[in-house]
Amino acid sequence: MAMSFASADPPVVDAPGGTAAPGLLDVRPRITELRLSAFAGHRGAGFPLGAVTLFAGPSGSGKTTALAAYEALARLGGGAPLLEAFPDPVACVPERARPDGEGRRGFRIGCTADGAAGPVRLDVAVQAEPRLRIVGERLTAGDVVLLTTALRDPGRRTVQAAWYTAGTAPVTRAPLPDDHLGTALLPLRVAGKTAGQRRVLAAAEQMVVALRSVFACDPRPDCMRTPVPTGTGRLMPACDNLADVLWRTRAECASRHGRLVEALRAGCAGAVSDLLAEPLPDGTVRALFDRGGGHRTELARLGEGELRYLALTLVLLTGPGVLDMDPPGEVPDALRSLTVLADGFDRCLDPRQRRALLRLAVAMAERGHVRCVAAVNDASWCAGTDGVTVVHLNP
User: Residue 220 contacts by C-beta under 8 Å, 6 or more apart in sequence?
Assistant: First the structure.
């Protein structure tokens, strides 16, 4: 499949990301690099991802695109079909990409997951036109190709896959659907009888666990001010059901709620004695600040900056059991890291709020269970912050 590249300035990487404590090997699967070989406005781009990574640049530089690419890979890793991961696939094609002789255009995307199996690379070529499909996929560890797929017959909705076996036959060949990530299907297809097959399984599972442990959020203050019906108690990406989540979490974990209130004191105006969730007669629940002395403030009275700060703080302090996501439930919490994708991390925040939020993200990352990949317009305010990787993008 022929795909041309759109022009884009190469990223400049400033500071290294956080690492495991000296003497300790961090085996939790995590994405350490995002590659946009030919994706929307990015060309030949490889972005290192640390414990806390900030994509910085003006409007049009590709920050949101990078986060969207990460989220799409996460959906594919969770078993979602292509159309769910890329609802507007043509928008992912580089602007100057020319169709080949059969009218085909597409894009290329990939990532690296590190963990107990070592660095594992995943690279995917997607045809967006005239029909959405995966036309090539490669999973590698070191110099060993563990899985490769290719489109052999355009008339079929399958690709020909070959995975490493290292048994009586060097590889096993079989068709796989062209609308799902082959790597996510390997645990169901590989028997694990040979050392080669077990290596394939370890690499595929590491990649899938790293990708599935992702929560993408972009709080919408306009949806957070009104009472909401009680529901699942799982926080939605827009954080519009924040009051319902507080109604649940305040009683479930007093220590974590105490940390939330402490963080709110650092980033919200006025006294904050507590954050309450109050049920109303109509079956809804509302959230309020307890200011002390019997004085309370409804969220409806807070500004957009305070509401976004509150929502992002809650996200960083909670876990997969509270967030509306589908983590790999078969993997213990201690063996996986939650990655929070936050577009507009600094949107509407004043200098005090953004510094407090970044300190919280770094502190949670140091504990090992949360990683954060976010977009900001300008990262000069966090220059030199330990544990933060800054990637500057140019339009």
Answer: 238, 239, 240
